UniProtKB/TrEMBL annotation:
GO molecular function annotation: DNA binding; transposase activity
Protein name: IS200/IS605 family transposase
UniProt source species: Streptomyces luteolifulvus
Transposase IS200-like domain: residues covered: 18-138
InterPro entries tied to this protein: Transposase_17, Transposase_17_sf
Gene name of the encoded protein: tnpA
Entry superkingdom: Bacteria
GO biological process terms held by the UniProt record: DNA transposition
Pfam entry (one): Y1_Tnp
Length: 142
């Protein structure tokens, strides 16, 4: 017997897809420099919320420390995560460098704000072991 499906408020419906996609992202500034103050983190969050909204995604959580930021993004399958990351990093770098130029120049040099790498993990839903067991227990046609 299949487990009873409980409605999930994060589940979205499109014309031909039902989805709930979340990603945990971590970005670090170039050379992992301690560039973030509380004020800069707050502004970075505002910028990234706007970028997500324009991309039809939602920034669910944001936090950070002096040398990195964490984001929890809820996004539709039409959004390429790598493209969203590029836009998040590019737009935020532009505005943060412009608005906090003196502070950032003391910590970073050259034209780069973010490290070119990032961490991304899919998250949400059931643990992989539960999904694996559910699939293994499905009946095969006769």
């Amino acid at each position: 017997m299949s487990p009873r499906w409980e409605p999930n408020p994060d589940t979205c419906r499109g014309r031909s897809v039902v989805h709930t996609l979340h990603a945990h992202l971590v970005f670090v500034p170039k050379y992992r420099r301690n560039v973030f103050t509380d004020e800069i983190l707050t502004r970075c969050e505002e910028i990234m919320r706007e970028v997500c909204t324009k991309a039809n995604a939602e920034l669910r959580e944001f936090n950070g420390e002096a040398d990195h930021v964490h984001l929890l993004i809820h996004y539709p399958p039409q959004v390429r995560l790598s493209a969203l990351v590029g836009t998040l990093k590019g737009v935020s770098a532009h505005y943060l460098r412009k608005e906090y130029a003196a502070h950032i120049k003391r910590h970073l040099w050259g034209d780069h704000f973010w490290s070119p790498s990032y961490f991304a993990a899919s998250c949400g839903g059931a643990p992989l072991t539960v999904v694996k067991e559910y699939i293994e227990n499905q009946k095969r046609p006769g």
